[in-house]
Amino acid sequence: MAALAGSAEVLRHRDFAQLSASERVQLDRLLAAFALRGETRRSARRRSARRGGVDPRRTVRELLRHGGEPARLLRHSRAERPRRVVLLVDVSGSMAPYADALLRFAHAAVRGPRTEVFTIGTRLTRVTRELSHRDPDLAMAAVSAAVPDWRGGTRLGVLLREFLDRWGQRGTARGAVVVVLSDGWERGDPELLAAQMRRLRRLAHRVIWANPRKARPGYAPLAAGMAAALPSVDAFVEGHSLAALESLAAVVRGADRA
Q1: Which domains are delineated in the chain?
Q2: Across the beta sheet with 206-211, what order do the strands follow?
Q3: How much is the mean pLDDT over the chain?
Q4: CB 3.0-4.6 Å disulfide test: which of 39, 54, 201, 211 passes with 254?
Q5: Which residues face 179 on adjacent strands?
Q6: Which helix (H) or strand (E) segment is 89 a member of?
């Protein structure tokens, strides 16, 4: 048992790009058990509570039930609900060693409430429905069939603009925790990416960027796309291993700001 536990701990910190075939099978099982919830926010709805403001409607109904005799004051407070989480997963050629693991992470995330997933490369593809299959392998097969631009180039600025025009402005990104999982390589105009990141930042509650390359010794965000995006990013984290994704999940929950 100790040997198995030690093996699992080593696997948690291994770079996805360095895993053997058998280690990937173990990783897939661990990713299937993941959970991802957005940072909570107070909603307009109220629920009964022991403490909080007086609930006048319920209190009056209670008085009427007792024939107008004095009754205890019933109280309510604002309910909390998780914010929507939006995952933008880079499936371009430079992300090939990481895309499968990141999409399996997204598959686990879709089981939670209010999660949307898109792939980005040379095209933007919404894959939330495909990832809703309970079986991870069926979900990955459905995504493979739906995404036409595996291992192609990267047009982050153009696709982020398309996401915001088609989805973000309509409410998908508004008040959400938006996570970009990408190494930041950009074939297009970095200024366009910078402008769209500023748009995203104005809409979203938080913008998180998870970069698998960030964990490499001596890494600096010098690629034009990454450098252009960073001023609009609230949290810049690693995304190369299971442990890194566990840390990412904590950031999405807002644990880094608690």
Answers
A1: 2-39+83-257 (3.40.50.410), 43-81 (no CATH)
A2: 124-126, 115-120, 85-90, 177-181, 206-211, 235-238
A3: 86
A4: 39
A5: 87, 208
A6: strand 85-90
